[in-house]
Amino acid sequence: MTAHLEVDSISKVYGVVTALDQVSLAVEQGAYVVLLGPSGSGKTTLLSVIGGFTVPSAGRIAIAGRDVTAMSPAQRPTTTLFQDYALFPHMSVAGNVGFGLKVRRVPGPEREKRIAAALELVGLAGYGGRGIHEMSGGQRQRVALARALVVEPEILLLDEPLGALDLNLRRQMQDELLALQRRTGRSFVHVTHDQEEAMALASLVVVMNKGRIEDHGSPKRIYERPATLFTATFMGESTQISGRVSGANAVETVIGSLHADMTHPAGAEVVLIVRPENIRTDGAAIDLGTARIREATFQGAHYRVLAKAERGDQDFVLRLPPDQVVEQGAALRLSCRAESLVVLGR
Known about the structure:
Residues 5-235 form the ABC transporter domain. This protein is α+β, with helices and mostly antiparallel strands.
């Protein structure tokens, strides 16, 4: 695979603070990449370096086989959609969308044609004459998207574009962003700290931590088989059971000896990860012992249950079906399938 976007050993240092530390990433054309991580992880700095707004201390950026490291944002085949959209309030919708084309001196008739096509693409056909103040939050985002896409960038960069929207509108815009990316076939690089948003949008999730890439892969692989303990902790809820490898595929824990596939040597300190939906009460192969319900919260499709093991100081988080009787203090015999346990080094 020839990388459409190549991030090669990028570092960025501010005084004594290292914001990015030897970050490398190769992205194929047409990917929807989500940079995910907590505040201060380096994801926004990386996006800014790709867009040319931040000059790296070391490393190079290449897009479509061309080194763009020394290029300004205006010279690069990228456009950026910021969280606040940065629309011009004194311009009409059409004026905003066509601003980049005007800067590029695209002739008037061609400019009008491309503005109309971009507005139709984002579902705003016929809105060109309206003022920005007349548009709702979701419509303003569509205007910003049209403005970004009308210049036909190789890569669209999105800096937490859904952060200012309410929950229902955010989910609607997630669907629209994904559909738009698929229709255009362009590469999107999207920054967020929201794990659910990343899972909904990405073909490639890049988990960042302390200026480094902690893990990267498909949303399914990142969630089900995280490569590191940080990734497992950051990507959704899980029960974490600490232990020591005692032999071939055996780990001694406070709730007893558990068996799982692993490559860790005897004596290694490990953590076994099991997701809430994989903890069962029907007697699966791996017995996790008895636990008592401490809290149960009804969440529509399931109960989110916190339970405490009767043996050892071990907490569990699990999901129970909405029609199950859930009572505080009730005992549950917990289990999981062998393939549901992920063993990670400490």
